[in-house]
C-alpha cells in the first residue's frame, strides 16, 4: 500500500465499520487489496465532477434524477442480454420522464459495482444448519453450503472485473448509437403487443418521433440526441474494496473513489462516527445517504456538516426510504430543518426499502401500490414545503420477473414463484417500471 498516497482514503480504518465481512484469511485479503490498488480506474474523476454538476441541477430544482437497477448484481448475470435489458428499461423510463414530465433527467444506474449487501442478520439457519448470511457476490456465494458462504477476498477482484465488463458494455450502448433518441421505438420491441405499459410507451414514442421529424424538417439534428449521459453508482459498503479503488486526481490532488461515479452510504452503515461516513467525507464523488424513518433532523444536519461542509449543490443526495405509511409524517421535519440550515441537498425518493414484506408463500415482496403511494407522499411533502422532489431511486430489472405484486399488467401473490430471480430484494419488472415512470411524470407535471 502506498501509505502517503492513500493516507486520506484510509482514515476510516481507525473507526468502527459496520457490515464488513469476516474474511477468514487476512493475508489473502492484503494481497487482494494490493492488487486492486494497481488496477486502472473504472471511472474518471472528471466524469464524477460532471455528475456532481448534474446533481447540482437536481438540488436546485432544474433536473430530475432517475437512479435504478438491481438490489444486488450477480456475477452470473453479467451478460449482454441482461445488461441491455436493464439499460433499455432505464432509457425508456428516462424518455417517459423527459417527454411527459418535461424535465431534464439525470440517469444513474445501480449498476457496474452493486455487488455488496448489508444484512439484518449475520447468519442464516436452515433445517438446523447455521451458515454465514449471503452478503453479495463480492463477499460470498448465494448457495447454502459452507464452501459458498465462506467469505472469499478473491471475489473482490471478480467484482472489479464484472464491474469493468458491465461498464464497458454500458458505455458502448450509451455512446455507440443504441441510445440515439431515434431508437426510441427499438427499445420497446418485443414488448408492445403484450403489455398495456408497452402500448402506452409506443404512443409516447410516436410523439417523440414526430417532434424529432419536426426538428429535422426545420433543419436541426442536435448531437445531444445521439448519445446518452449515463452514470454508474453502488452502495460503498466493503471499505477495503472502495478504498483500494480510491485514487488521487492528478489535476487537483483530490481523492476519488474510481469504482463508480456516485456512491451511497446505506441506512445500516451511516453512523455519524463510523467508518463509512469518514470514508465518504474524504472523496470528491457525489455522495448519497439513505435516510430511513428513524432519522432525526439533527442526524441529517450532522451528515451535511460531515459530507458537505461547503454546501455545494450536487455533492450530497439524501435518498429517503421511509415507507408509504410514514413518509408524510417523517419527511416534512427533515426537509424543513435542512432547508432552514441553508444546505442545498438533492432529495430523492427510494420507495422500495420501506415497503418490503413477506408474502404467505415466503417470498420477500413489495406492492406496486405502496411504492407508488410513497412516491406520491414524497411529492406531496415537497410541494407543500415549496422544495423540489428531485428524483426516484428504484430497484428494477429489464427482465419479466415476478417479484413485486401489482402493476397495470398485474402480478398476483400466487404468481411470485413463477420468475422470482432476485438474489436479495424484489425488483420492479419492466412493465411495472414503465408504469411507475408514467405515473411519476404525471405527478411531476401536475
Ligand atoms: C439497498 O439499497 O439495497 C439497501 C440495502 O438499502 P437501505 O440501505 O436503504 O436499506
Ligand atoms: Mn435492496
Automatic annotation (TrEMBL):
<keyword id="KW-0057">Aromatic amino acid biosynthesis</keyword>
<keyword id="KW-0028">Amino-acid biosynthesis</keyword>
<dbReference type="InterPro" id="IPR002480">
    <property type="entry name" value="DAHP_synth_2"/>
</dbReference>
<feature type="region of interest" description="Disordered">
    <location>
        <begin position="1"/>
        <end position="24"/>
    </location>
</feature>
<keyword id="KW-0808">Transferase</keyword>
<dbReference type="Pfam" id="PF01474">
    <property type="entry name" value="DAHP_synth_2"/>
</dbReference>
<dbReference type="InterPro" id="IPR013785">
    <property type="entry name" value="Aldolase_TIM"/>
</dbReference>
<comment type="similarity">
    <text>Belongs to the class-II DAHP synthase family.</text>
</comment>
<protein>
    <recommendedName>
        <fullName>Phospho-2-dehydro-3-deoxyheptonate aldolase</fullName>
        <ecNumber>2.5.1.54</ecNumber>
    </recommendedName>
</protein>
<comment type="pathway">
    <text>Metabolic intermediate biosynthesis; chorismate biosynthesis; chorismate from D-erythrose 4-phosphate and phosphoenolpyruvate: step 1/7.</text>
</comment>
